[in-house]
Amino acid sequence: MTDNNETPTGGNTPDDEWNDLVRRFEAERSALPDAPVAAPPAAPRRVWPLNLALALVAAGAAFGVLKYTGAAGSSDDGGAATARPAVSGPAREAPAAPARGAAAAAAGTRPMVPLADLFPAGVEGDSGTAFTRLGSTVMESCTEPEGVGPRLAAMIEDGAGCVGEQIALYKDDRNNQFNLAVFTLKDPGDTVRIVTELGMAFDDYQVAVQGPPRGSGLPALPADSGLVQAFTGHGRVMVVAMGQWSDGRTADFQQLVDRMRPLQDAVSRKVATYEDAG
Length: 278
Description:
Layout: H1 14-31, E1 37-38, E2 54-55, E3 61-62, E4 64-69, H2 96-109, H3 115-118, E5 122-124, E6 130-138, H4 150-158, E7 162-172, E8 177-185, H5 188-200, E9 209-210, E10 228-234, E11 237-244, H6 253-276
């Protein structure tokens, strides 16, 4: 018996049917370029032993945004950041390589942006949206399994390592929830690599989402709530911004990304000011 929506062909092979399925999928996807991609089934919540409960959200849909600024590369249009090719010089200039290594080593020992300077108490968006900080803290490690996924932890450990991670939770004037996680890496090259890879895998959630603190009046959203995430990088610092609607709905993702952008930009500017000051 055939499905009512299918017309039996009599001569189709399994390969023909598979190829036809792929063609239909590609046609539907190209017709909806901004449609969010459904994520895998929900994973069990993982709670951080802090006053702010943290859960790794591995369900819902997301729309990824990628931007990298700094000497190593630049991408503002959602594409992958690529390192700029080095300018070749005369052979006598070859010893410049150790100087770059020394600069990278110095960057790895420089402290993170001070927490009080990184996350503003309030942010006003161009459209009048107001964001209020509910809490912020410095994590003990960038790779604790309850706070980051195994892929991100491995990417950090495979590179030069991480100076530290700082997180903050915000709400807007409609009680939508926004998380910021700022990773200060030891090597700016790792920032380019990680921002590029995670930014392109926009339905792979590798950073924990904080639950609202008691007394905030905000609900603790279930693990299958919709989620958007966006990545920016500046020098050695990666900023991960995540947003959820107040009711956890899995719809209107581009609107949520647009609503989150002023907050993400405000924190990214704080990073750029500190990093550019050297």
